[in-house]
Every structure is written in structure tokens, then in C-alpha cells.
Amino acid sequence: MSLGLQWLDEALGAATPTLVVPACCAAVTPGAFPASAYGVPAVETTFASAAAVATGVARVRQMNGEAEPTICWAGDGGTYDIGLATLSAAAERNEDVLYICYDNEIYGNTGGQRSGATPRGARTSTTPRGKVEAKKDIMAIMAAHRVPYAATLSLAHRDDFLAKVRRALGLPGFRFLLMLSPCPAGWKSEPAESVELVRLAVACGLFALYEVFDGERYRVNARPDGTPLDAYLDRQGRFRTVAPSLDDLRAQVARDWARLEALARVFPATEPAKTE
Ligand SMILES: Cc1ncc(C[n+]2csc(CCOP(=O)(O)OP(=O)(O)O)c2C)c(N)n1
Asked: How many whole angstroms from 174 Cα to the centroid of ligand 1?
């Protein structure tokens, strides 16, 4: 999460955003006003209301003729589940908000409970034998809102990450970015391997890197390179000893890629021409 915030800061350049952060690790770790490590105006909101609060901030800024961005930085619990109603409403109204979900696939701050973002098979404090249900496809949900821009971000693909954040910052209206964000405590993984885990998640196809323009034009930024799914799963204690549901997870990855490739083939994104 902190590396993603650093890269966001780099992509912002001289711009000073207002950050809107619901209850999550990102609300706690920077410390409280007036000593918050964010160094920019930051509003902490109730779990369900980040996108609604950001709506208010963005509208006041618009009325005042200010061009600085309003950015939601939220966990998966606050995005996929508890904040989904306000997220949906702000997206549907096409508010001038950049919403970034750092997805650690659990309710990390409160002890690693399962969320709608937890993948099938993963053990969490509330799914000790592995989660039965599949991960919710939040990108498809956002695309269905026909937002101007939605994209996934990898902490192992720096240039692609920065280019997509800058693209999002340059567009008006509602923009949604999804970043896979390892949580060593919850994933039972080595902290030093976090970036490598994201690289493996992209390489094996579990976390697809792609963009959706206006909810209907697709571009794939990186494709699976034949790395087996086990290379990713074996490094995390949360996937140990849950073999049956991992077969389901493997099948799911294949189906998701078939769907994404079909969408990118039939509805390709032509503008802008490439990720720099
Ligand atoms: C309505 C409500 N329910 C539960 C909580 C307790 N709570 C605070 S943070 C949190 C977990 C947040 O999970 P996520 O959004 O995934 O972010 P992470 O902690 O993983 O960074 C929970 C359950 C709360 N603050 N408000």
C-alpha cells in the first residue's frame, strides 16, 4: 500500500489532491491530524461513505474553479462491499473523482476477515478452510457503470502504473483504478516478496493488467507468460492445504482470460494508442 501511495505521489507531480479515505489501513497508518504523513488535505470517512464525501469535495472544488484532483484511496472492504452503494452512485453520476482501491483481498485492519475481494480458496480468519465463493469482479461492475476510465495497477510494472495513473488524472469524470496490494500478515507471505508476488500474479494470469475506456473499449497491457499459478500460490500460507478449491481457482483464471481476450478483440481500445 505504501509503495502505491509513493507512486501515486510521483504521478501527481505538483498537483495537490484532497485524499478521501474510509476506514481501512490507509486511514490508520499515516497518523492523525495535524501530523498525518500524507502532507495533503485528507478526509477520513465512515466505511460506507468515501465516494459520497468525495462527491461533495469534488463539487465544491468545481464550484470554486479549482482544478486539483479529488482522490479516494480505499481498501477492498470499503470498495467491493461496504462502500459499494456510494461508489456505484458516484460512478453513475460520473462525479469528477479518481477512486483507487488498494486490494489486499481481506479486511486487513480488523484482523484479516474475508471480503468480496478474497479469492476462492484463500484462508482468512473467517474462512479457515478456504473461501468457497469466487472473487467479485469489481472491474466488470465499474465497466457496467460506463465510467470514462477503469484500469488495473501492478506494483511490479512501474511504468505501466505511472502511465495509467497519469492517464486517469488527465481525464474528467469518474475514474477507477484497482491495485493488487499484498498484505504479508493476512497472506502469510514474506514482506520482502510483496512486489515479486504481484509480478507472479500478473505473470500467471490471476491478476490481469488492462484498461477499459467508457465501459466498452478494452486494452490488455500484459498477458500471462506461462508461469504456473502454483508459483504464486505456493509462496503464501493462505493458500496452503485447500487443494479442491484451488482447482476451481485455476479454472476461473482460464475463463476470465477467455472473456477478457474476447472483449479486447471485439471491442478494442484504439485511443490513446498505447501505454507509454
Ligand atoms: C460500518 C463499519 N463496520 C466495520 C468497521 C470496522 N472496520 C474498520 S476498518 C475495517 C477493515 C477495512 O478493510 P478494507 O477496506 O479491506 O481495508 P484494509 O483494512 O484491508 O486496509 C473494518 C471492518 C467500521 N469502521 N465501520
From this structure: 23
